[in-house]
Design goal:
cilium; DYNC2LI1; alpha/beta; 13 helices; about 15% strand; microtubule; 7-stranded mixed beta sheet; Rossmann fold; 7 strands; about 375 residues; dynein heavy chain binding; motor protein
Length: about 375
Amino acid sequence: MRLPQFLYKLHAKMQKMFEKGNENSLSAAGSIQEIAGRLAEEQERLRQLEAASTAPKERTLFVLGSKGVGKSTAINKFFDRDEHTTRPTMALEYSYGRRTGTGRSAQVLNVWELGSLDNAEQLLEVPMRTHGLQQLSVFVVIDLSQPQRVWADVERAYKGLRDTAQRLMQLAAPQLREDMERRSLERVKHVKQDLGTLDLLPFPVVLVGGKYDVFMDFEPALKKHICRCLRSMAHLVGGAVLFYSQSVPKLAKVLRDTISHLGFGSPTNPFRAHVTDYNEALSIWFGTDSWSQIGIGESDRLSVERIGATLSVQVPQLQLEKQKQELPQDPARDVGFRESLIDDLRAHKDEELAAIMRDLTLRGKFESVHG
């Protein structure tokens, strides 16, 4: 991006000032240090002016996770959309928001929502490749009301994000890779003792436990195991954990503020409190958890496989194959997708097909009798 013309003039003026200062006072004690300090200040001023230029700033949010957990509702609430009947997201949907503050350049927020984790390998790459990884943040929303499905959704989301990020990082310039790795380490700088055991993703990840209003009434032992799993997974990838329910205004506001923070840069820290008690709604910001706080000793550092295996022993998990067998009803019959013209044509074709099947059945019986 080119700097405005007045910045070039300002820079030239400063250079002349430094040249004149060199001629008059180079021999003075400390003059070299003073010039170096002024030059550093000027460079920082130029960077700030460049950042405040009129070009729009863009950030991207990618929302994925369990089906029917309320991802679309959370996005619509953030954009103040009053939709009485939210249709299920079938594949990948895109929306955006734009904000212009006083004296600031326009900010654009790209929001992508993945409807299902089933066979989503190619869809996962779309938002990550379209807008790049530099300004990407990810929300993985897990349905807490179905504890037997938690691990399958967590594992698929993690592996999809990890594999796609690795492919894109390999194609990125070395300087970009170094910058993203540096920022990943910066997010967890307060847990230096665990760095060697973490498998950081190159972008911020918020693990959101949805439908907390149902989960809060479960047995304490079950809640303890689910919370331990989600905390372990978030810590492993350098992420944050937040429990959420649209029916609990306090939790809904924290999620909304978190989206605003990662999407537009405000507020500074949307998590009002640090909560690790499994009897309450978890609220754990980036880099504020640790293996020791989770209750895991130095000899028991967890990998993704061990986290999943541990949860499966404590809370039996529904296997992925069984989940696929329990497919939802035909979307064509879903009341949220009613279209009178299309539905009438579909009904007419169904009647024609039924008539053909009846004729074939009768013909088969007739031929078997007279064969």
